[in-house]
Amino acid sequence: MLKQRENWASKLGFILAAAGSAVGLGNIWRFPYVVGTNGGAVFVLIYLVVVFLIGYPMMVTESAIGKHTRSNPVGAFRALAPNSPWWLAGALGVFTGFVILSYYSVVAGWSLSYIFKTLFGTVGPGVDTADAFVGHITSVWPPIIWHAVFMLLTVGIIAAGIVKGIQRWVQILWPVMAVLIVLLIIRAVTLPGAGAGIAFFLAPDFSQVTGVTFLNAVSQAFFTLSLGMGVFITYGSYLKEDDNISGSAGSVVGMDTLIALLAGFVVFPAVFAMGLDPSAGAGLTFITLPAVFAEMPAGVLFGTLFFILLAVAALTSAISLLEVVAAWLIDEKGWTRGKAAAVLGVVIFVVGIPSSLGFSVWSGFSMPGVGTDLLDTYDWFANSIFLPLGGLLTAVFAGYVWGAKKVQDEANFGSGNLKVGNWLAVMIRIVIPVAILVVMIWGIVETFAG
Ligand code: TRP
């Protein structure tokens, strides 16, 4: 029996939901701090190359698999290669989504709490924002409670299936976000001493490059574009017959890259103007942005609005992570949507708790090269191992087992002004697998040797 599968209401529906998944903490929180810890502009350059050479073709490939099979990741691999172990590639994706969401929700919780800290002046003029941030994450209960609140919001949306509601919201909030970022850029670049930050972000210093730089660029590209774990297989499965993939994926990659670069133009001028260290790590954005708000007129208003938007951006990403795992339980195990969302919410919340406690009661934890705290460590395994591995398997599968020509035809179907050429086959059969393999081996060896 063929089940009737829900479709996006319009072509824009897919683009908005996909861009909602892509644009999130990865752009505004993770991108600046990873740039900061990897030598600045030279990392940005490598990252951009990876986004276009690996990111775009991977997004096209995952979406084509989803659209063709109209299935969750596990079902999709099984449908295209029945009676083979390839379904494990889909299962790896489901597992990865689970791990990422567990700590993603902790960071999203920080954003939620910063809405109120900014509004009530706990973080603002006259406050040392670095002390305030450390104070927040090293406390035991508040970050866990905000983690719970964020997870509850995510579960609520997936359970209700109100993708429409959130979609409409996102559509309104996108332009607000854009205006706000532009205002912040104007404030940041006009701070005295901002020039050094712009140079750090734009003028590459090639002596900073190591194997780890490349691994981190690949990790960041997969993370920010939501690739390597089946989000685009799942979201692609809701596409209509005549929807075009090649063009839509281009729009999503373009929007995501633009937002990340704009975030860099806010954070780095501010970091240097305020004499902060760009390689400060995971706290960078939460320390610099409140300091910028404190220095601008109506800073409380802009700051509060900004953290609301950041939380919403995180929410539209988190629902895509939960949707993949839930879709698998719904399609493959016959669970109801409500049960899948609720049970997963509780389990993922619990799995995420250590990544929060790693800043307080378990602050003794560190894994040399991998992470100085538990959140870093979760992040390293998810993004430096599981996502690239998922991407590698998907590319090899699509290129050799399903067939590169089929990917290309599926991607170019329908009307769009951007078409993928025969180069796609070369990319997914050779360039992407070899590049990921080399970068993973090189980066991992250096991580543990260093
Ligand atoms: N891309 C999102 C961000 O930048 C995070 C995210 C959502 C994600 N879904 C994903 C990352 C799937 C990896 C895989 O914040």
Describe it for me?
Helix content is 76%, strand content 0%. It is mainly α. The longest helix is centred in the C-terminal third of the chain and has 39 residues, at 374-412. It is globular, with a radius of gyration of 21 Å. The mean pLDDT is 92. The structure holds tryptophan. The site of tryptophan has 16 residues, from helix 1, helix 2, helix 10 and helix 14.
**Major sheet summary line:** none
User: What level of helicity do the residues show?
Assistant: over 70%
Give the percentage of residues in beta strands: under 5%
How many alpha or pi helices? 17
How would you summarize the topology of this molecule?
Layout: H1 11-22, H2 25-37, H3 41-69, H4 73-80, H5 87-119, H6 129-137, H7 141-160, H8 163-189, H9 195-202, H10 211-224, H11 231-236, H12 245-273, H13 284-294, H14 299-333, H15 337-357, H16 374-412, H17 423-449
The structure holds tryptophan.
Relevant terms:
450 residues; mainly alpha; 76% helix; binds tryptophan
Quick overview:
By secondary structure, the chain is an all-alpha fold. The chain has helices at about 10-20, 25-35, 40-70, 75-80, 85-120, 130-135, 140-160, 165-190, 195-200, 210-225, 230-235, 245-275, 285-295, 300-335, 335-355, 375-410, 425-450. It has one domain (about 15-50, about 90-225, about 250-370, about 430-450).
